[in-house]
Amino acid sequence: MSKVVFRKIERKDLEQVFTLLNQLKQIDISSIDKDEAWNNFKENTGSNSIVGIYKRKVVAYGSVVIENKVRGEVAGHIEDIVVDSDVRGKLIGVSLIKELIKVAKIKGCYRITLFCKEKLVNFYARNGFEVNSVVMKKYL
Amino acid sequence: MSKVVFRKIERKDLEQVFTLLNQLKQIDISSIDKDEAWNNFKENTGSNSIVGIYKRKVVAYGSVVIENKVRGEVAGHIEDIVVDSDVRGKLIGVSLIKELIKVAKIKGCYRITLFCKEKLVNFYARNGFEVNSVVMKKYL
Asked: Which residues from chain A sit within 8 angstroms of residue B121, using beta carbons?
């Protein structure tokens, strides 16, 4: 297959990214105020989110949340990794993780974390991650 | 004991917060450029970090990292929870978590997550958190 090209997300990608993320978690896309979502996102997380383009289509999305700690350390956290189900099994996920690690390095992160289900531990372990602790969640 | 008072972190708390965080993870505090650390922190994470004051001393610290997702959702992540070892066992940790949940609600978070070691799962479960997935970490 031709190569997937990764780049920063742009406003024009929103529709396709929304649809792609519905493969991860289904929400009612039509109810989203795109301008408001984009403005809030751009200021905070946006500059650290990337898309993967294949045949002019967004087939991958992922984000790094940057945390400036009080003692000056910078930590990165990978969120919302998704690869289009039509193109899975072609190592696009591996390339996406590598791109996000690059972003985290540029931002000066000393470490990067991610949450995953048990079944994905081997995938991330092959990409240099080690199991560290437990994620606990509370819905508000 | 008298009540611990929680409030937003201020620049003047830095020295005490640094020392307190050394109970969690020891780093060489003297090498930190305080102004630079404070400026980077304030812009990004700072407005969501709180201290607990007891007898005019900072005895607790915790932070909520706010993530604006591309589809408009807001997620919160608790980081760097520490209670002074001199005053542990007095439920200050419970109050701290409650304060951070309040911050996350004010910021519009739909959920809040945290990483913890297995031995702390029961503590957080008593505070409404459920085990969700695995944390994987990579040092850069």
From this structure: 134, 136
Order across the sheet with B130-139: list the strands. A5-8, A49-54, A57-68, A74-83, A111-116, B130-139, A130-139, B111-116, B74-83, B57-68, B49-54, B5-8
Tell me the pLDDT band of A24, cut-offs 50, 70 and 90. Answer: very high
A45 with B37: Cβ contact below 8 A: no
Fold exhibited by the domain B5-126: Aminopeptidase (3.40.630)
Chain A CA closest to residue B61: A70
Q: Which residues on A lie below 8 Å from B137 (Cβ)? A: 111-113, 129-130, 132
* pLDDT tens profile B22-80: 999 999 999 999 999 999 999 877 779 999 999 999 999 999 999 999 999 999 999 99
CATH topology of domain A5-125: Aminopeptidase (3.40.630)
Candidates A44, A132, A136; nearest CB to B114: A136
Contact list, A128 vs chain B (CB under 8 Å): 138
- Dihedral, CA atoms, A109, B100, B68, A75, nearest 10 degrees? 0
Sign, Cα dihedral of B124, B128, B133, B138: negative
Domain boundaries, chain B: 5-126
Distance of CA A117 to the CA centre of its chain: 16
User: Testing the interface with A: which of B73, B129, B136 to mutate, by most A Cβ within 10 A?
Assistant: B136
